[in-house]
Amino acid sequence: MRPASLCEVVERARVDGDWDHHLQNFLDAFYALDGEGAMIAEDPGFLGDARPDAFLGGVGEHLARRWRLPFIPAWVRHEARYLDTVLFVPDERNLRTYLLCVSPVSFRPRLIFTGPDPLQRARFPYHRGVVRMPLTFPQGPAAAALFDPER
Predict the structure, then answer these.
(1) DSSP assignment letter at 81
(2) Assign residue 113 a region: left if phi > 0, alpha if psi is -120 to 50, beta otherwise?
(3) What are the tens digits of pLDDT across the range 52-68?
């Protein structure tokens, strides 16, 4: 059975240490309910490892922002939800510049640099929150000013 909250993710990870596996299952449940805020509202507590504790803070904030929930849980702002050293996910040297540019705002202040949607899963509800390129681009003098390399 999938975790019904981030609290359950942490509880299960304390038993077997596999927080990423439990997080992936949680995300499937969250997406199946199309972003139920109660699933991230309660402080899940800490695992005692800075990286997953910070990442879970980013998860809570990112899901609240992405699904435009009426709140961002206060627990995500705890100082232990931020790293002192940079974490690249994945930690590939040739991807670092890219990850610095595309990492979501919920992860950047935590010094976690990842792809544009680190929480994407097969069950991801593509009808919500997917940013697409415009089919047409602005035309005329105002548009030219936007693309003027001298500006």
Answers:
(1) G
(2) beta
(3) 999 999 999 999 998 88
Bridge partners of 113, per DSSP, are 88
Q: Position 24: which residue type?
A: Q
Q: Evaluate whether 63 touches 30 at the Cβ level (below 8 Å).
A: yes
CA distance 7 to 38: 11
Residue 103: CB atoms within 10 Å: 21
Instruction: Read off the pLDDT of residues 62-110 as tens digits, 9 standing for 90 and up.
Output: 999 988 899 999 999 999 999 999 999 999 999 999 999 999 999 999 9
Per-chain mean pLDDT for the chain: 87
Q: Could you tell me the pTM of the whole model?
A: 0.82
Distance (Å, rounded) from C-alpha 113 to C-alpha 108?
Answer: 6
Q: How many angstroms separate the CA atoms of 97 and 103, rounded?
A: 10
Given a contact cutoff of 8 angstroms between Cβ atoms, the answer to whether 5 and 38 are in contact is yes
CA distance 51 to 88: 11
CA gap 44, 17 in Å, rounded: 15
Structural contact between residues 96 and 113, judged by C-beta atoms closer than 8 angstroms: yes
